[in-house]
Amino acid sequence: MSESGSTVPNNLEAFWMPFTANRQFKSEPRLFVAAKDMHYVMADGRKVLDATAGLWCVNAGHCRPRITEAIRQQAGELDYAPAFQMGHPKAFELAARLAAIAPADLDHVFFTNSGSESVDTALKIALAYHRAKGEGTHTRLIGRERAYHGVNFGGMSVGGIVGNRKMFGTLLSGVDHMRHTHDPARNSFTRGELEHGADLAEDLTRLIALHDASTIAAVIVEPVSGSTGVLPPPKGYLKRLRDICDQHGILLIFDEVITGYGRVGAAFAAERFGVVPDIMVTAKGLTNGVIPMGAVFVRGSIYDAFMQGPENLIEFAHGYTYSGNPIAAAAGLATLETYREEGLFERARSIEALWADALHSLKGAPKVVDIRTIGLIGAVELEPIPGAPAKRAFSAFLKALEKGLLIRTTGDIIAFSPPLIVTEGQIGEIVDILSDVLADID
Length: 442
Ligand SMILES: Cc1ncc(COP(=O)(O)O)c(C=O)c1O
Prior knowledge:
This protein has helices at residues 22-27, 53-56, 65-77, 89-101, 115-132, 153-158, 162-165, 202-211, 237-248, 269-273, 300-306, 326-341, 344-350, 352-360, 391-402, 424-440, and strands spanning 32-36, 39-42, 47-50, 108-112, 140-144, 175-178, 190-191, 216-221, 251-255, 279-282, 294-298, 368-374, 377-382, 405-406, 408-410, 413-416. By secondary structure, the chain is α/β, with parallel strands linked by helices. Strands 4-11-10-9-8-5-6 form a 7-stranded mixed sheet, with helices on both faces. It has a 5-stranded mixed sheet with strand order 7-12-13-16-15. It binds pyridoxal-5'-phosphate. Keywords: Aminotransferase, Pyridoxal phosphate, Pyruvate, Transferase.
């Protein structure tokens, strides 16, 4: 609240909003002032059902008491501890708890403050790992078209969303991209992994033939692409990437910033799809989105490769002032405890079919050209208005908000990722409102 007691600020100009149409927003502001469980409250008092877990991050729902209390307590006990050459117990405890829920030997954790920092950290680990092993020619990074890996220079370079890349010059050199896996002619109205497209993993073989494996450090993919509009993997695709990487001494990185922490009905997509990467990038759901934090998991053999040379020397010249910050660590511990206590990862899996049935019931609704679901993620793709890409979905976003539903759009795709506590009734509400919205927009 401002000094006047109003919840509405009277000057919106100074804040340059991220990934936002600033002028449109400032002419018709949309302000959240409170949240609880599945709902936001807007400045005019209206309740809005959150079908996007904030920005794919509030997996346990809003303002959960255990997490709020842990943050409150930690802030009064140890607010900050230097992250370099000093430590505090909760960062170690959180890393150990994370290692315990991660698949296989992904048992060492490097803390960051966001998904973007986690991606860049993973890429740096991959490059430095090969150098530490005496394989310094492995410097090339391979991403994929349509990928989103955050907005820092490494992530942008391996990313494949043209609108996020074209404004920023030449980006990192020595990066190449595999073809994306979106193939609506072969896969449409899909549930779970796609029937067709495992063959697209062979595109990595093409790039290896072009560049030679000895020049490639790592391949990074989202197990399910999120921000580009929800693209589940074709059956067998991730396993094939794993095999090709193994065959050629290339590290495989999974960007699980969206898929981690229960979103696909398992702790991580690596577990759900039965494919273990060498490095796993996470953030968002790690702290339920409440405090910025990211975590990069690496296999023991990668950590060990760095633990060489004189013991008084820093092994990896990388880190952030807030790596493993005490309040973030406390939030992370309380979040993991909430997930465990309420069985939220299992819950996501158990309501996946219901979620898919509900969203797929929109097949045949006006303007809908495709629907894709996996875990508690979904996408409803709309036919674009000719000559006005993204306009129809943005109208749907505004109309849905008016009707009390928060959705997210990317291009003409509506993406859903409700908190894992969503009830059957609320799933019905999401679909009913969306159905009204589709009937209402041009
Ligand atoms: C797959 C993926 N990687 C990285 C990021 C970047 O995360 P952040 O916005 O926390 O930097 C995102 C954000 O949506 C993401 O979806």
